[in-house]
Write a structure and sequence with these properties.
The chain is mainly β. Helix content is 5%, strand content 41%.
């Protein structure tokens, strides 16, 4: 086969291969429907009730009347096939029909619940990352909502997050029942919001993390099929400035090895994380410029390839290159608010990586848009920011749900956090003929056969001009083959695995320095 024909074949099948590049990607669609929207009113039926559906291509945002009001507390969960199971506003747990599940009322009981949920009927106000659904490991029909409660102190007036709780949901014949409701995990003053999770290194259980209030101490919980089985308390790094409490965001890198924590009064706080032990193993900071705008919320998200960090700083959206020798010096403005307001300014706030490999940004409370970063793996302006790229049928409310990387695998085969092709109409895809990982790669690329093959095999890498840059023969009967790619320049390469006279696997791999 001629080299030009080879490249054509590779590019022709690239999107297909990206869609099926790992078995773990299929059947882990717990984040494929986002519930959003603000208060409903009796005066109009066009307020609240947004359903954002990533099962459709392109993604759609449709109106669906909802009785349950959402504010800053927002969590939802789908089954493994991407069908919405339930959601919560911090006051109740509701199902796909928007009816409160059996025993799903009175979540986060107390004075704040009485005020926000009963008297005001608006939704709980415990922070944009104060509630998180996770599937119970080794179960297809059980989910656990982890949620923070708060109390209002009057002398002086203060809002204090005082507990981390969990409430479990079980579905029987599509009927959801809440049990173990409001079970206390920890009773301590905790950060406002800032609740995150990452898969254990075994690819099955979870680690759940949240900082203490105005503190450099983290609570770390191990969550398995048996519930919370271990609690770690660890102090590391700097103490955040108190006035930054509740004005930032905290996220894991897609591979789960880094945590990025922001607020507008501190440098970016960066923690190394060990998915095996649950320990924070290192700390660093990244200084950045907030911009010439009144200080307020600052959101953050990491690109799918783990290279770029995005900061939503009200009027400005920034990108930082996490692989640059001087990360702070790499800060670049990729979007500046264009002045649009209807009736409120569409600024840059909370950010969230979508299952379609785009990053979505909350444009502010009661706006009718999400911003979209279409190509977050690309440097600089090539990341292609579209202000108000996802129109919403009603006002968005003050939050979007936050999700962990449900598709994260084991450290030696972490898989991809998202896919540019999203569909639930296709049957389960078998394992590809060969697994090629890690992606991105720094030094050693591994090739693992998933089927029995005879005869020699060949790995070929081409740059994006079609030039052959590496060729390595290997034994397809070997459990794994390691290929040294450290000499390759940083960039994107098309790989092919040849065996039995045909291409058995084709895809893209990103080479890091």
């Amino acid at each position: 086969m001629a080299q030009s024909d080879l490249l054509f074949y590779a590019m022709k099948h690239l999107l297909f291969c990206l869609a099926i590049s790992s078995f773990s990607l299929y059947g882990q669609k717990h984040d494929h429907i986002w519930v959003a929207g603000d208060d409903n009113t009796t005066a109009t039926n066009t307020h609240g009730g947004i359903i954002i559906d990533y099962n459709k291509k392109p993604v759609t945002a449709s109106y669906n009347y909802r009785k349950t009001n959402l504010f800053v507390c927002n969590a939802s969960i789908c089954d493994s096939n991407g069908n919405l199971r339930c959601y919560s506003n911090g006051c109740v747990i509701a199902g796909t029909d928007d009816e409160i599940l059996e025993n799903g009322d009175d979540i986060n009981p107390g004075g704040a619940h009485q005020f926000r949920c009963i008297e005001q009927n608006r939704g709980y106000a415990s922070g944009i990352q104060s509630a998180l659904f996770l599937p119970l490991p080794d179960s297809a029909d059980r989910y656990v909502l982890f949620h923070k409660s708060y109390e209002i102190k009057n002398n002086p007036v203060d809002v204090v997050t005082d507990k981390l709780l969990f409430s479990s949901v079980r579905f029987i014949n599509d009927k959801g029942v809440v049990y173990n409701k409001n079970t206390q995990i920890i009773n301590d003053e905790l950060a406002y919001g800032e609740l995150i999770a990452v898969k254990h290194s075994n690819g099955n259980g979870w680690w759940i993390l949240t900082p203490k209030r105005n503190s450099n101490t983290f609570y770390i919980f191990k969550f398995t099929k048996d519930g919370i089985v271990d609690t770690i308390q660890q102090a590391i790094g700097i103490k955040p400035v108190p006035q930054g409490e509740g004005y930032g965001q905290i996220v894991f890198s897609p591979d789960g090895t880094k945590i990025y924590r922001t607020n507008p009064f501190n440098p970016i706080m960066v923690y190394d994380f060990d998915r095996e032990t649950g320990m924070l193993t290192g700390f660093d900071t990244i200084s950045y410029t907030y911009g010439n705008t009144p200080v307020g919320e600052i959101g953050c998200a990491v690109s799918p390839n783990g290279r770029f960090l995005y900061l939503g700083a009200r009027k400005n959206l920034y990108q930082l290159d996490l692989h640059a020798p001087d990360i702070s010096a790499s800060q670049i403005l990729v979007a500046e608010w264009d002045g649009f307001a209807n009736p409120f300014s569409t600024l840059f706030q909370q950010l969230q990586l979508g299952p379609d490999c785009k990053i979505y940004g909350l444009a502010g409370g009661d706006t009718r848009y999400f911003h979209v970063i279409h190509n977050p793996d690309a440097p600089g302006l090539a990341c292609n920011v579209e202000q108000r790229g996802l129109p919403l049928p009603t006002p968005s409310g003050a939050s979007m749900p936050s999700f962990p990387n449900f598709r994260l695998g084991t450290p030696d085969n972490p898989g991809l956090p998202c896919s540019p092709v999203v569909s639930t109409t296709n049957p389960p895809t078998p394992l590809p003929a060969f697994s090629v990982f890690p992606n991105p790669v720094r030094t050693v690329l591994k090739v693992v056969p998933n089927q029995q093959y005879g005869g020699p095999a060949l790995l070929r890498l081409h740059d994006l001009t079609g030039r052959l840059v590496l060729e390595r023969a290997f034994d397809p009967l070997a459990p794994a083959t390691e290929v040294d790619v450290s000499a390759l320049a940083q960039g994107v390469y098309v790989y092919e695995v040849w065996c039995e006279g045909a291409v058995q696997r084709v895809g893209k791999v990103v080479k890091w320095e």
